[in-house]
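pls design
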């Protein structure tokens, strides 16, 4: 016997069932593609769940993908409209450049376009010195942020990613950085920009995936002779978002496209935030209380046809119950194993009806009345 749902919840459940059943399941024997990278990671952008890994904890040179952290720290320390007067020594930085000129003034936003689109090492130095007074001090801020994000195998020695002793990361850590970066709306917006005009010059994004890969969102390319080709990217298809990292990969464009093709076929994100349930309330001012997940709740699961979702709720509650109070939990089972769970909380307070107290025998009667209700029952597949 199921706990009664509201009419609105029943409509949402129908939409939910359509969403989880729409995609064709990936074939069980389908394996991830082979890649040319020395190290790689493919993960869910929202939860961080890793679905493909190759030497993911190997410490390696990361070239200009370093600039993701440079941008993140700069955005946390500076305003987009802050003006920076360009110093001559910044313009002499070797490698890729946005061609800054000594004495000109550029906003932090313009420097970020130069940093993330054309990988300007001059822009990296300008941002570092503006935000922290110098590259060494800025590197300390980068390392503090890396520690905060749990990037335990990462060390930054500069803001641009040119090869330097003590400057390294891993595919796993760079995926963590990408997830943090994409939560910053300004960084995500700039990284997804295909072209920008700064000081009359057209800056075209080096990230070819923005043109060639369905749903590509950005992030950053990188290359030095010692590091090889490095690429950190993100993509979204339907309700699922993935992050991909490859290090020392001579075929990174094709490898990212292939990994995304496999990942979006083999996995999917199931929304759960709009599901709601009703729990009977005894001696309350209302006869029931609504229980629901957080609005953004979702599950990242294999797209193999084994998906099950269960709700665990009390058979009934005695008043009072309070808004935000935990009512139960919603859990997803994939491949016979629990892949995740989220709490169900009461959406409103139901106060005790002082005119309807219960004696011991009345409580016993209600307990017997609800005894045959399930406390755990299937949400998907439906009964």
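designed seq:
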């Amino acid at each position: 016997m199921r706990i009664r749902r509201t009419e609105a919840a029943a409509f949402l459940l129908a939409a939910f069932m359509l969403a989880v059943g729409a995609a064709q399941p990936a074939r069980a024997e389908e394996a991830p593609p082979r890649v040319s990278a020395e190290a790689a990671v493919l993960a869910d952008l929202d939860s961080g769940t890793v679905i493909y890994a190759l030497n993911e904890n190997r410490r390696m040179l990361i070239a200009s993908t370093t600039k993701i952290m440079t941008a993140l720290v700069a955005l946390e320390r500076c305003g987009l409209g802050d003006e920076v007067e360009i110093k001559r020594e910044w313009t002499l930085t070797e490698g890729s450049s946005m061609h800054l000129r000594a004495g000109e003034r550029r906003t932090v936003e313009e420097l970020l376009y130069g940093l993330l689109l054309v990988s300007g090492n001059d822009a990296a130095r300008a941002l570092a010195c503006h935000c922290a007074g110098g590259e060494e001090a800025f590197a300390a801020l980068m390392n503090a942020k890396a520690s905060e994000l749990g990037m335990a195998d990462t060390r930054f020695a500069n803001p641009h990613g040119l090869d330097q002793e003590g400057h390294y990361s891993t595919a796993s850590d760079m995926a963590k950085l990408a997830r943090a970066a994409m939560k910053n709306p300004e960084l995500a917006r700039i990284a997804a920009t295909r072209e920008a005009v700064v000081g009359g010059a057209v800056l075209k994004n080096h990230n070819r995936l923005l043109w060639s890969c369905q749903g590509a969102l950005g992030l950053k390319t990188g290359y030095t002779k010692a590091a090889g080709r490095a690429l950190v990217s993100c993509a979204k298809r339907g309700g699922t978002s993935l992050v991909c990292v490859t290090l020392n990969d001579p075929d990174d464009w094709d490898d990212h496209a292939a990994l995304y093709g496999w990942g979006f076929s083999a996995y999917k994100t199931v929304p759960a935030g709009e599901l709601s349930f009703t729990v009977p309330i005894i001696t309350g001012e209302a006869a029931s209380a609504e229980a629901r997940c957080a609005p953004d709740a979702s599950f990242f699961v294999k797209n193999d046809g084994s998906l099950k979702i269960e709700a665990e709720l009390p058979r009934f509650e005695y008043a009072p119950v309070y808004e935000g109070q935990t009512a139960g939990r919603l859990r997803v089972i994939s491949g016979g194993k629990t892949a995740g769970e989220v709490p169900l909380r009461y959406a409103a307070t139901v106060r005790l009806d002082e005119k309807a107290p219960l004696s011991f025998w009345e409580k016993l009667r209600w307990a017997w009345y609800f005894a045959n209700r399930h406390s755990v029952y299937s949400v998907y597949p439906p009964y």
